[in-house]
Write a structure and sequence with these properties.
Elements (H helix, E strand, L loop, with lengths): L1 E5 L6 H10 L3 E5 L9 H11 L3 E4 L6 H6 L1 H21 L3 E7 L23 H16 L3 E6 L2 E2 L6 H8 L5 E5 L3 E2 L2 E2 H13 L4 E4 L6 E2 H12 L4 E5 L13 E2 L14 H12 L5
Parallel strand pairs: 1-2, 1-3, 3-4, 4-5, 5-10, 6-9, 7-12, 8-13
Antiparallel strand pairs: 8-11
Helix pairs in contact: 1-7, 2-4, 4-5, 8-9
Length: 282
């Protein structure tokens, strides 16, 4: 199988290329120097040049706080570029698998995880632009899979786990919020799930987040425990730890679809991430 991965220099994209090649697939990764995906002609040329069976679209504007001030830019990248890539893939009868986010929900659900059929309602600019991207992709390519994930972390990119390990250096204690709950997802688990989706015939939205749920505080406690970090993890709230962009209080995700690849528990993801970070994994 031949796949094209956009955003291949990023934390997730580079992992997908490596995992696809390990499967014996013909995988090509592209990023900003290879072409401007917001230009329809450039996007079409890029896809035609590589003639993939499927495109895994990871390129995105992912600065959640920055999107509040630069929503127009985020929309151009997350929606317009996604439309261009989807349309270009459709012209070659190629499937598109696009990565989306828990931020398309408002976080007001209680008692159960979000599933694919739940109504969306983003509360911030990032979520709005990613939801617009979902709509654009579905409207430009009938052979599509939208893979919503949450709280992504892995080697080779900025993420919460990496930040918390660095913050703990030389400190006796850190403060982490307890009132935001989600499903942390390791790139080492998400990547093969996206490859599986690329090989499927099923279309639509798929929830592909790490199994289980935890707060940012609980995630930090487990991270430090497994990493041997001795810093104390104190509790705080989202209101006390104010950020420019609002975050959903509830980002727990699960799938109601039989075809969806199921990811392992988030705790296994943390262990895998630390192995990667320490050079003990692939």
């Amino acid at each position: 199988m031949r796949i094209l991965v956009t955003g291949a220099a990023g934390m997730l994209g580079h992992r997908i290329v490596a995992d696809a090649q390990a499967r014996g697939w013909d995988a090509v990764g592209v990023d900003l120097p290879d072409g401007d995906l917001t230009d329809p002609a450039a996007a079409q040329d890029l896809v035609e040049e590589h003639a993939p069976d499927a495109v895994i679209h990871c390129a995105a504007f992912t600065d959640v706080d920055g999107a509040e001030e630069r929503e127009a830019t985020a929309l151009t990248i997350n929606a317009d570029a996604s439309a261009n890539i989807a349309a270009a893939a459709a012209m070659l009868n190629a499937r598109i698998v696009a990565v989306s986010t828990d931020y398309v929900f408002d976080g007001a659900l209680t008692g159960r995880p979000y599933v694919e059929s739940d109504p969306t309602g983003p509360i911030g600019a990032y979520g709005r632009t990613k939801l617009a991207g979902e709509v654009a992709i579905a409207g430009h390519n009938p052979n599509y899979a939208i893979a919503r994930t949450a709280w992504l972390f892995g080697v080779g990119g900025k993420n919460f786990c990496d930040t918390m390990l660095k913050v703990a250096e030389g400190r006796d204690a850190v403060r982490v919020v307890t009132d935001q709950i989600g499903s942390p997802t390791w790139t080492g688990h998400l990547s093969p799930a996206l490859l599986d989706l690329a090989a499927l015939d099923a279309v639509g939205v798929f929830h592909t987040a790490g199994g289980g749920q935890v707060s940012w505080h609980g995630l930090t406690v487990k991270l430090y425990e497994l990493a041997g970090v001795t810093a104390r993890v104190d509790e705080t709230t989202a209101a006390e730890f104010a950020r420019p962009a609002p975050r959903p209080a509830w980002s727990v995700m699960a799938s109601e679809r039989d075809e969806t690849p199921r990811l392992p528990p988030w705790e296994e993801g943390v262990a895998g991430y630390l192995n990667d970070r320490n050079g003990d994994g692939s």
